Amino acid sequence: MEESEKYLQLAKDNVITYAPKIIGAILILWIGFKIIKKVMTVVEGLLQKSNLSESIRPFILSVLKIILNVAVILAAAGIAGINLSIFATIIGASVLAIGLSLQGSLGNLASGILVLSIKPYHVNDWIEVNEKFGKVTEIGIFNTIVVTPGNKTLIIPNSLMTSNVITNHSNQGVLRLEIDITMPYSESFPRVKQIIENAISVIPNILESPKPEIGIEGYDSHSVQIAVRPYVKPDDYWEVTFACYENIKKAFSENNIQVAYSEGVELGNIGE
After folding, report:
1. Which of 70, 136, 167, 263 is least enclosed, having the fewest CB within 10 Å?
2. At the top level of CATH, which class does the domain 175-267 belong to?
3. Residue (of 99, 44, 36, 23) closest to 66 by Cα position
């Protein structure tokens, strides 16, 4: 009987000692999670009113929710009398291990947040980065997806987007084509220039403003280098490029304009 009374008294003492702490911890969890829910609602509303990209908002909400939940759980554990130094050690070791194993991913994550914040390019923009050219179809937290004119999908890590020079061909709304034509020295440049102007003037997607530029860019040992620089909308880049070469070739053939090869061999007439 004495032994039973001893354990019964010990149980009563433990209940008296720990019951308030456990009840307090439960209350902290209940109240804390309710407060977190309201805080997340407010933050979500603020993010929707901000200029932040829609791609980064869910990430910010997720990180904030995790931090708040961990804070509430640690507070409840402290009230319950649990030694928080154990949690601190476990969390510290976990963060260090994860950080070491995900150095590249964390770099892409930081770069993704930067890209989504400063917005150097947008979805549907034509960009060139690290000698890769294409149209942006998706901007994610870790990478940017670009589709090339050859319909190849490039998944570019965001760390490359912040460490390289990005050429945004869509930022100004127009794009200048770089078309190079050769003309033998025996031909008259004013005549050839007029023929080229007439050839490209019938291409519907070439913009009238800015006006196409045609001029002599340089000379080599056998021919004159002519630069043809029409302006187009970025989405019309390849269509107009092909049309320019086709129309200029046809016009040269119709007007019997000779083309000089770099080897010095002249082709009397370009066939259609």
Report:
1. 263
2. alpha beta
3. 36
pLDDT digit string (tens) for 214-263? 999 999 888 899 999 999 988 888 889 999 999 999 999 999 887 755 55
Letter for the amino acid at 200? I
The H-or-E segment that residue 211 falls in is: none
Residue 40 CA to residue 63 CA, distance in Å, equals 11
Measured distance CA(25)–CA(30) in Å, rounded? 9
Distance CA 227, CA 99 (A): 52
Distances (CA, A) of 238 to 19, 136, 201: 75, 16, 17
Helix (H) or strand (E) segment spanning residue 168: strand 166-168
- Which residue is it, tokens 């019997």? 256
Please report where in the chains the tokens 């127009």 appear, as a residue.
174
Rg (CA), the chain: 34
Portions of the chain given CATH number 1.10.287: 2-101
Secondary element (H or E) of residue 166: strand 166-168
Q: Tell me which CATH code domain 120-168 carries.
A: 2.30.30.60
Distance, CA of 55 to CA of 67 (rounded, Å): 20
Q: How far is CA 74 from CA 27, 32, 85, 127, 138, in A?
A: 13, 11, 10, 47, 38
